[in-house]
Amino acid sequence: MTSKITTSQTIGPFPHEAWRWAVDMTANVESSAPKIVVKGAIFDGDGVAINDAWVETWMPDSAPVETAQAIPGYRRVPSGDDGGFSLQITMPQGATSGKPVAYVTVFARGLTKHQFTAVFLEDDAGLAQSEILGQVPQQRRDTLIAKKQADGSYLWNINMQGAEETVFFDYI
Q1: What is the spatial distance between Cα 15 and Cα 8, in angstroms, rounded to a whole number?
Q2: What is the pLDDT of residues 144-166, one digit of tens each?
Q3: 95: helix, coil or strand?
Q4: What is the gyration radius of the CA atoms in the chain, in angstroms?
Q5: C-alpha–C-alpha distance, residues 73 and 88, integer Å
Q6: Of 57, 71, 86, 138, which has the most beta carbons under 10 Å away?
C-alpha cells in the first residue's frame, strides 16, 4: 500500500519569493485590541544566527479581534541577516491565562521536518497552571517564555539545538 502523505522537505532556496504573499498579508495588523511585540532571533546549535529561517504563528485568542485581517490570528515572518524576527501580536481582553500567546512553527534550511513550539509571556499570571508548561520539565520551561523588556516588547530567542535548545513539540 502506498501512502498518500508526502514527506517533509527542507524549505529550499526560494521561500522568500514563494512565501512573500503571507508576509505581505500579515505584516500590518488591523485591530482595536492592544498589541504587543515579541522579538528575538533564531540560532543553530553552535549559536550562529540562522538568516534564512521562517517563523509562522497561529494565535487563536487574536483571531476573533482581527476580522479585518486577510488571515486573522496568523503571521509569517522571515528571519533577517542577524537571525532576528519580530511578531506583532494582538492581545484581546480576556485572553486565556496560562496559554501561549502564539503557537509557532519554525522552517529553516537543513530541517527535514519543520518544528513546533509555543511562546508564553513571563508576566502571565496563569503560567503556574498552564497545562502545556506542566508537560515540560521545569528546567526547560524558560525556553518557551518571552521576557519583558524595558521598551514594553518581549524577547524570545529560538535555539534549534544545544544546551539552550528551545522545547519543540511532536504532534501526532
Answers
A1: 15
A2: 999 999 999 999 999 999 999 99
A3: coil
A4: 16
A5: 10
A6: 57
